């Protein structure tokens, strides 16, 4: 019996090949990030000479010190945190409140098909950049945090994912709840939302990453640098290096700093929050996006 169990668990050539493939994929995914970190910690001459691969050459913190040497960085970081909290929160509420009625059939929600066509239409067609900007300006949101939050408050793709997830839940749950006297709000808050945690965690991750990584809206909608979110601030950091700087100490710092090192440092700094958040939501990701993408 023991010999049979040993044979049953013996690794085959296919297992070794699969493990080797997974290790290779892991290395391919990690290598660019590792290379970026090495460049950000290397001296200008080594970076410009192409000597940096996966280990820092002439280790230095100059690139990170340049990012952190004034309060603008921390202000931009706080604005991005506020943007993510408000943006992801508003998108979560709107996604749930729109996906729930759209998950009902036409008999339960009259006009459902009309609303679905309107939603799909907004995915396929847009008014363009200039009308988009003029609408936001006419609403008086320029240079405010709401300009970064309200224009993307209705995430159509996320709504469709959650809607399809809810439609795939057993109909017997809803029928049993109605028989017991539950209303629509009770059904949503006590049954549907707890069961839809994988889908909601997935779309929340999409919202967080989208708001955190976006720099273009801050560049267009913020005319004052002190209102820039972090991504916009870092994007402008290299562009706005003051070449007329008269302070000899700062000139010496700029002479030691490579644009490649600075770009690598800003890339690494901006991915740290996502790396922190992702492990907590990753276990829901595959399950949520798979079930949410299946149409009944």
List the helices and strands and how they pair.
Elements: H1 2-8, H2 13-40, H3 44-48, H4 62-68, H5 71-102, H6 112-124, H7 129-138, H8 156-167, H9 171-179, H10 184-195, H11 197-213, H12 216-221, H13 230-239, H14 248-255, H15 259-292
Helix pairs in contact: 2-15, 4-15, 5-8, 5-11, 5-13, 8-11, 8-15, 11-15, 13-15
Keywords: Cell membrane, Membrane, Transmembrane, Transmembrane helix, Transport
Subcellular location: Cell membrane
Membrane topology: Multi-pass membrane protein
Quick synopsis:
The protein is mainly α and 296 residues long. The chain has helices spanning 2-8, 13-40, 44-48, 62-68, 71-102, 112-124, 129-138, 156-167, 171-179, 184-195, 197-213, 216-221, 230-239, 248-255, 259-292. α4 crosses α15 (259-292) and α8 runs antiparallel to α11.
Would you mind describing this structure in some detail?
The chain has 296 residues and is an all-alpha fold. The protein folds into 2 domains: 47 residues, no CATH class; 230 residues, MetI-like fold. Helix content is 71%, strand content 0%. The chain has 15 helices and no strands. The protein starts with a helix and ends with a helix. The C terminus is likely disordered. It is found in: Cell membrane. Belongs to the binding-protein-dependent transport system permease family. One of its GO terms (biological process) is transmembrane transport. Its main location: membrane.
């Amino acid at each position: 019996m023991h010999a049979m169990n040993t044979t049953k668990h013996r690794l085959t050539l296919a297992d070794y090949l699969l493990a080797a493939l997974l290790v290779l994929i892991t290395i391919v995914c990690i290598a660019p990030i590792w290379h970026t970190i090495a460049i950000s910690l290397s001296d200008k001459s080594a970076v410009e000479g192409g000597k940096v691969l996966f280990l820092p050459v002439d280790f230095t913190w100059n690139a990170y010190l340049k990012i952190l040497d004034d309060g603008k960085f921390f202000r931009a970081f706080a604005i991005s945190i506020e943007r993510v909290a408000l943006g992801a929160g508003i998108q979560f509420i709107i996604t749930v409140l729109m996906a729930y009625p759209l998950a009902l059939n036409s008999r339960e929600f009259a006009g459902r098909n009309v609303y679905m066509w309107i939603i799909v239409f907004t995915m396929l067609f847009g008014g363009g950049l200039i009308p988009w900007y003029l609408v936001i300006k006419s609403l008086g949101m320029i240079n405010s945090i709401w300009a970064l939050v309200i224009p993307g408050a209705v995430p159509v793709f996320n709504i469709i994912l959650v809607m399809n997830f809810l439609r795939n839940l057993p109909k017997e749950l809803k029928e049993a709840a109605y028989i017991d006297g539950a209303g629509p709000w009770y059904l949503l808050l006590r049954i549907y939302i707890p069961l839809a945690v994988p889908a909601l965690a997935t779309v929340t991750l999409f919202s967080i990453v989208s708001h955190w990584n976006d720099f273009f809206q801050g560049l267009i909608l913020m005319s004052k640098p002190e209102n820039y979110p972090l991504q916009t601030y870092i994007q402008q950091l290299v562009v706005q290096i003051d070449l007329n700087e008269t302070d000899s100490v700062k000139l010496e710092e700029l002479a030691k700093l490579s644009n490649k090192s600075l770009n690598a440092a800003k890339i690494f700094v901006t991915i740290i929050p996502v790396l922190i958040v992702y492990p907590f939501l990753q276990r829901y990701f595959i399950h949520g996006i798979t079930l949410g993408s299946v149409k009944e």
